[in-house]
Structures are given as structure tokens and as C-alpha cells.
Write a structure and sequence with these properties.
The chain is mainly beta and about 260 residues long. Helix content is about 0%, strand content about 50%. It has a 4-stranded antiparallel sheet with strand order 2-1-3-6, with no helix packed on it. Strand 4 and strand 5 form a beta hairpin. The radius of gyration is 37 Å and the shape is rod-shaped. It starts with 6 loop residues before the first strand and ends with a strand. The relative contact order is 0.13.
């Protein structure tokens, strides 16, 4: 019967999403063939820490022969499909136009995974603040439901009644897993800008001219002569317009783009 030539054969291998030449394979194992063996001889290798629709490529570093002098040429490359996923699910929070002031804003909290999420109910804690918050300080919560294999799932939360150049902070109360067991650790803290303004504008007035009023400057008709008054408007956000009225209820609407 035909048998393999006895010896120890070095088998090189590598995982990749594109073809790999034998000389570029950086890992190796050995297969030892006993004298006169006519049975298949094998070795096992494990690939981890990779992600993608790849292949395991292997090649024999030297020629392999049998007792009839048949051979497999050195550096013969073979491969087998091997799809792997080593990436943890992602957690994100987004706010549209977060740095533009408004009375309230809505944030979208999203869980996603390129391969697919595990089934579960995920509690996401959140809070708004003008200084950094810890996960333990987030007092509100929402839940996101995922079915096995879902690529993504999300929930919206709305913040109102706050003031300032703040952020919304979120964190996951427990670990988030995907379909193959990759894990996003619990208490992953994230934030997004969320500027809010719920304070009415303030207006202050100052007399510019005349500084004092006499009969010669004010007249005797009971009305003051024309006065120049400076009105200053301030607000957390952007003032779009304001109305100034005199004692006779004559009004003038002023626009302000600053």
C-alpha cells in the first residue's frame, strides 16, 4: 500500500479576507508522519481576534512525498472559508444640531452590531448636565429591546426645562452581547452636545441723553424732549427681536442678530 514518507512537515497558515501567499503566512504548526503510515495525519489550529468574511490559508513549507514518489510541491496553498467576528457591539448617542439652542432636544440612543445582536432587554441610563457626569449619577433610564440577530435597535429620549451649554450623558446598566458572545462592557459612558435654553431674555435700560432734564430741555407741555435711551438685551441663546414702547405707546420693533 502507498504510504507517506516519514518525517515532520511544517505547515504554515494565516487568516485573511484576501489571498495570502505562502511566504506571507506568519504562523505555523507541524505534522509528524510515522514510517509506513498510510492514514491521514492532521493538526488543529485556532484563529481568534479577527473579524470578517475571511479564509484560512495554509501551505506546506517543504515538498511532501509518498512511497511511490508522488509528491505535493512545496508552498502549495490551500484555503477554507472561515467567517469570524471579534468586535463588540457598539453603543452610541446622537443629537441633531446639538450646539444650537432650543427649549428641548431629543437624543437617539442606538445599539448596533455588524453580525447581529443577542436577544435581550437593555437598560440605558441617562442625564443632562453642564459638567461631566459618572454612570452612577445618571438618574433617568430607558430600555432598548433586541431580538436575536438584529443589526441595530434604538430609543429616543427628550430633555427639556434645562439651561446651558450641556451634554446628554448615557451608559448601559449591564453588558451588551452580540450573537457570538462579543461583549460591550457595562457602564460604558458616552455623551453628546445638547444646548438648551429655557430662560426668558432680560432687558436693561440706561439713559444716554439728556443726562438731566430742565424746563429748557424738556419743555412745558408735560412731555419730555426727545431722549436717547440704550436698551441692552441678554439671553443664554440668540435674541431674534424685541419691542420698545414710549409713554404714548408708540412702539418700534428692533431686530438683533448677535
Amino acid at each position: 500500500a502507498t504510504s507517506l514518507t516519514a518525517g515532520t512537515y511544517t505547515i504554515k497558515y494565516a487568516w485573511g479576507t484576501e489571498a495570502i501567499a505562502c511566504d506571507d503566512m506568519t504562523s505555523s504548526t507541524t505534522i509528524t508522519v510515522a514510517s509506513g503510515s498510510n492514514k491521514a495525519t492532521s493538526a488543529s489550529v485556532t484563529i481568534s481576534g479577527k473579524t470578517g468574511k475571511g479564509r484560512l490559508y495554509a501551505c506546506n513549507a517543504t515538498k511532501v512525498t509518498d512511497s511511490n514518489d508522488k509528491s505535493i510541491a512545496a508552498k502549495t496553498v490551500v484555503y477554507k472559508s472561515m467567517y469570524l467576528d471579534a468586535k463588540a457591539p457598539t453603543l452610541s448617542v446622537t443629537v441633531t444640531n446639538g450646539t444650537t439652542y432650543s427649549k428641548s432636544k431629543t437624543a437617539t440612543i442606538k445599539i448596533a452590531d455588524t453580525i447581529g445582536l443577542a436577544e435581550g432587554t437593555h437598560t440605558i441610563k441617562y442625564a443632562w448636565g453642564t459638567s461631566e457626569l459618572a454612570c452612577s449619577g445618571l438618574t433617568s433610564s430607558t430600555t432598548i429591546e433586541t431580538a436575536a440577530g438584529d443589526k441595530s435597535a434604538s430609543a429616543n429620549v427628550t430633555i427639556s426645562g434645562k439651561n446651558g451649554t450641556g451634554k446628554i450623558y448615557i451608559c448601559n446598566a449591564a453588558a451588551i452581547k452580540d450573537a457570538v458572545g462579543n461583549t460591550r462592557a457595562a457602564s460604558t459612558l458616552l455623551s453628546a452636545d445638547m444646548y438648551l435654553d429655557n430662560t426668558a431674555p432680560t432687558i436693561t435700560y440706561s439713559l444716554v441723553s439728556p443726562v438731566s432734564c430742565t424746563s429748557s430741555t424738556c419743555g412745558t407741555s408735560g412731555y419730555l424732549a426727545p431722549l436717547k435711551v440704550k436698551a441692552t438685551c441678554t439671553d443664554n441663546g440668540k435674541i431674534t427681536s424685541f419691542i420698545v414702547k414710549d409713554a404714548q405707546d408708540t412702539s418700534d420693533t428692533q431686530s438683533n442678530t448677535s
